[in-house]
What we know:
By secondary structure, the chain is an alpha/beta fold.
Amino acid sequence: MIDYDAIVIGGGPAGATAGYFLARAGWRVAIVERSEFPRRKVCGEFISATSWPILEAAGVHDIQGGPPVRRVGLFLGQAVVSAPMPRGGAGNGWGRALRRETLDARLLDAARESGAQVWQPWRAVSLRADETRQVCVIQARAGARELRAPVIIAAHGSWERGPLATQLARSQSPSDLLAFKARFLGAGLEPDLMPLLAFPGGYGGMVQGDGGRVGLSCCIRRDLLEAVRAGDPAASAGAAVLRHICATTRGVAEALEGAQLSESWLAAGPIRPGVRARYADGVFRVGNIAGESHPIVAEGISMAVQSGGMLADLLCAAPDRSLGRRRLDEVGRAYATAWRRQFAGRLRAAAVFACLAMQPRLAGTFSSAVERAPGLLTLGALLSGKTKPIGYVALGATDGRVAGAP
Ligand SMILES: Cc1cc2nc3c(=O)[nH]c(=O)nc-3n(C[C@H](O)[C@H](O)[C@H](O)COP(=O)(O)OP(=O)(O)OC[C@H]3O[C@@H](n4cnc5c(N)ncnc54)[C@H](O)[C@@H]3O)c2cc1C
């Protein structure tokens, strides 16, 4: 049995950020990550300017990424519209794309360097309560180990099934959204533009990343995917989806004309948008497992790092680290409230945009409205949290002092 002050399950952006700030404040932290890094991830990889202070604090802001994104756009049917992206956050005020292979590895390294012990590749397989602490059993080829701590943080994302009570149950329905992502060389997308794509049965986005590569990520309903694949049985699922998007969405067909796929397609899902418990049964949740917005607004990484920092701040405010259940419950309530204030609005906005994009009748009205008033795209970016300042100061976690916690 190995004792820690906190065990974080999952070393993606949410878990690595929470682990980084706790370790930097002197906590004994274990982060359990089941995959070897660097690893690719289905994601559009755009990070809003508001999250930059957190990445800077962790020293991972210097990663080579895409150009600043100054315009938001809409590619829907024949419509190709753009409008200014609202400026927000620290630094130059613009978001940009960072490769997940690099971002996630660098964030986890930052946590390791600040003193967290990273168990990788180890998988958390069970959690049970001890008298005053909780025991997490982790497994790898080498065998199993038991880690123990008063604080457990679930940061394992929401797309993978598993035996933990914090993991979501399997589901299968025609309306499930399956996710795809690929990168292209030689695409004609303007470097400062991030268009939202809306096509029959799904939505997505495009953005330029490092080395001039353009990433396209999207979600498509399971029933539509089956229909699209039936019409193109020789093609891979990713290629069939792309053909469907290009056949229905002029902006994508034009931007990718003559472009070459630079890496194979990745697929994941079904994704599970929605607000979930942020704290239950003595376990905190950060990132996607606490709540997931439709990726149409490209805010998931920001919500992951911001929720990780927010929870670290609240935990560091506790007078001592061997938190009893009553104190854990208090912190859990404060965190759940702060989380709702910070993120609930953008989840609602994302759900409305996803509905507008995917319902054929609404999509027509949506695109005519945006063609008449492109400023609606700027408004949409504002509603999706692109400029919402972090309502707490994660950087306060350095000395265990919460600055500005709600
Ligand atoms: C199509 C698409 C496009 C997107 N585009 C964007 C975008 O442009 N911008 C944006 O901000 N967001 C985007 N997102 C959302 C973003 O990818 C997620 O919100 C983000 O990855 C959530 O981070 P996380 O740390 O909560 O979870 P994850 O990134 O999923 O990390 C969880 C980690 O936990 C590990 N893990 C899982 N189970 C266990 C276990 N039992 N034990 C140990 N480790 C475990 C996994 O290996 C993984 O590394 C997009 C999503 C999709 C589907």
